[in-house]
Design brief:
Blueprint: E1 8-17, E2 22-26, H1 29-34, E3 47-50, H2 58-64, E4 72-77, E5 91-95, H3 96-101, E6 111-114, E7 117-125, E8 128-132, E9 142-152, H4 155-166, E10 178-182, E11 185-189, H5 201-218, E12 224-227, H6 252-280, H7 288-318
Parallel strand pairs: 11-12
Antiparallel strand pairs: 1-2, 1-3, 1-9, 4-9, 5-8, 6-7, 7-8, 10-11
Length: 319
């Protein structure tokens, strides 16, 4: 299926400056690491966009039209198609006193923001600071390697893709965002991890507005987006003991029977030996095998009673 304007998709790209072959941006973490531009806590991987929504340069959007899922393309962009030509009017001299009023100590290379526009300090001389508000890549010819990773067709996934775009976080899984679409309204309950974000409240509100705007402007029959924050009472789990397992104690009667059986075996062997000796000395001179059998039977009969008596005596002694 060919890409058309309004499609939601995941885009892979690597951007270079043609003149120097320097990589300035990429969605590939490995490439970023190799080129020394790896940014900590940045979510790498294909970025979600809506074609025609201005999420990427117009030159890239135009090149995407007609491409197929999985297709790759290399494109060269002039400054006009990229970040524009350099504008001398955007290079300003600001008195050092203005920085002192803000409690700032300007340094070459420092980025500052004025009236919503970000500039970089180029030099400091004679009590004045030269700030360049042109984009860093203004006036440069660019080369992009792009690939259509996946075309998104499911409406719920389209909403989640806009959350990923405007609220990127490597610690948040997209499928944990709960999204419902009912009667032209999208209801979003973002992953619980976002509740602990340290971003200022106004920044979060602005990010939510961007998500909402991209949803209703690029999805059919959607005219309202609601964000729901749910806080549930947590039930404390019972603390588990880490102590070593203690063997279950046998009931008293079972323990008593166990000890008695042991006593019976000991007494039985003693009695049996004594009886065998006595029977062998009888006038009848019983054969050895018969003496053993008789001794076995007699010992069996009397050890029950004797064992009971011995056990009772032991119990009395321990009281």
């Amino acid at each position: 299926m060919a890409v058309k304007k309004g499609d939601f998709l995941r885009l892979e790209y690597t951007g270079k400056v043609q003149e120097t072959d320097e990589v300035f941006d990429t969605t590939d973490e490995k490439v970023a690491e190799e080129e020394g531009i790896l940014t900590e806590n940045k979510a790498y991987g294909p970025i979600p966009i809506a074609v025609g929504a201005g999420h990427v340069l117009k030159g890239i959007e135009d090149a995407l039209i007609g491409m197929e899922e999985g297709e790759e393309k290399t494109l060269d962009l002039t400054p006009e198609e990229g970040f524009g030509e350099r504008d001398k009017k955007l290079v300003q001299l600001i008195p050092m006193a203005e920085f002192r009023k803000q409690g700032m100590k300007p340094q070459v290379g420092m980025s500052i923001t004025s009236e919503g526009v970000t500039g970089r300090i180029r030099n400091i001389s004679g009590g004045r600071v030269r700030v360049d508000f042109n984009h860093e890549l203004a006036g440069k010819n660019l080369r992009y390697q792009i690939k259509v990773g996946k075309i998104i067709e499911d409406d719920v996934e389209k909403v989640r893709s806009m959350i990923d775009l405007h609220y990127p976080n490597p610690n948040i899984e997209s499928d944990k965002h709960q999204v419902k679409i009912e009667d032209g309204t999208v209801i979003i309950n973002m992953d619980e991890m976002t509740k602990f974000d340290k971003k200022p409240y106004m920044d979060i509100t602005f990010l939510r507005f961007r998500i909402a705007r991209d949803v209703w402007e690029n999805m059919e029959n959607i005219d309202k987006v609601e964000f729901v924050d749910v806080f549930e009472k947590k039930v404390k789990e019972e603390e588990t003991e880490n102590a070593e397992e203690v063997p279950e104690e046998l009931p008293k009667e079972e323990l008593k029977e166990e000890i008695k059986d042991e006593l019976k075996e000991e007494l039985k062997e003693e009695l049996k030996e004594e009886l065998e000796e006595e029977l062998k000395e009888t006038p009848e001179e019983l054969p050895e095998e018969v003496a053993e059998e008789v001794a076995e039977e007699v010992a069996e009969e009397i050890t029950e009673e004797i064992a009971e008596e011995v056990l009772e005596e032991q119990i009395e002694e321990k009281k």
